[in-house]
UniProtKB/TrEMBL annotation:
Assembly: Monomer.
Catalysed transformations (reactions): Release of an N-terminal pyroglutamyl group from a polypeptide, the second amino acid generally not being Pro
UniProt GO MF annotations: pyroglutamyl-peptidase activity
Biological process per Gene Ontology, one example term: proteolysis
Protein name: Pyroglutamyl-peptidase I
Similarity comment: Belongs to the peptidase C15 family.
InterPro entries, per the entry: Peptidase_C15, Peptidase_C15-like, Peptidase_C15-like_sf, PGPEP1_Glu_AS
Protease keyword on record: yes
Keyword match Protease: yes
Gene behind this protein: Pgpep1_1
GO (cellular component) term, any one: cytosol
Superkingdom, natural source: Eukaryota
Length: 193
């Protein structure tokens, strides 16, 4: 995500740029986009990216001023969006997809990813969450989960230096995404049922 509110520099964008420098395993094409903190831009951009790339997985990364860990979000929520975005806009319906389910879970087993990455001994603590915050992070996650039938993930990072550096966050994102891809590849049969 781009800047918003108190986050003149969005730690999520800096962390993703670090990930882009590090790269992922050789068989993965990584496409990186900075998403504006705007509801209407998300509603246009997310479906367009899914259509353009037909990805195996989309991983969104956002900053949380309350986070002190790297947080894997299990699900996205459809309703409850009351906060104004960078354009002073909020959907009249206060929801992502009118008539959509209240909550959509990622097909990625976040508990397994969390355990596996924690076992790698990185200098970053991971946690799990079921509430991405009812702002643009949650809105984007739900929109992507709806578009992809659950083949999306969302990672919240804390602000830079609170406590992690950009390099630490980039390495953590690299490890997390590689584990997500591994979990996804080993669960394809279940997903396609």
């Amino acid at each position: 995500f781009g800047p918003f509110g108190e986050h003149a520099v969005n730690a999520s964008w800096i962390a993703v740029q670090e990930l882009e420098k590090l790269g992922l395993r050789d068989d993965v094409d990584l496409h990186v986009y900075e998403v504006p903190v705007e509801y209407q831009a998300v509603q246009r951009l997310i479906p367009a990216l899914w259509k353009k790339h037909s990805p195996q997985l989309v991983v969104h990364v956002g900053v949380s001023g309350m986070a002190t860990t790297v947080t894997l979000e299990k699900c996205g929520h459809n309703v409850g969006y009351k906060g104004l975005d960078n354009c002073d806009f909020c959907p009249d319906s206060e929801c992502c997809v009118e008539g959509g389910p209240e909550c959509i879970d990622s097909v990625i087993d976040m508990d397994t990813v969390c355990k596996r990455v924690s076992a790698l001994g990185l200098d970053v603590t991971l946690t799990i969450s079921e509430d991405a915050g009812r702002y643009l992070c949650d809105f984007t996650y739900y929109t992507s989960l709806y578009q992809s039938r659950g083949r999306s993930a969302f990672i919240h990072v804390p602000p830079l230096g609170q406590p992690y550096t950009a390099e630490q966050l980039g390495r953590a994102l690299q490890a997390i995404i590689e584990e997500m891809l591994d979990v996804l590849e080993h669960s394809e049969d279940k997903i396609n049922c």
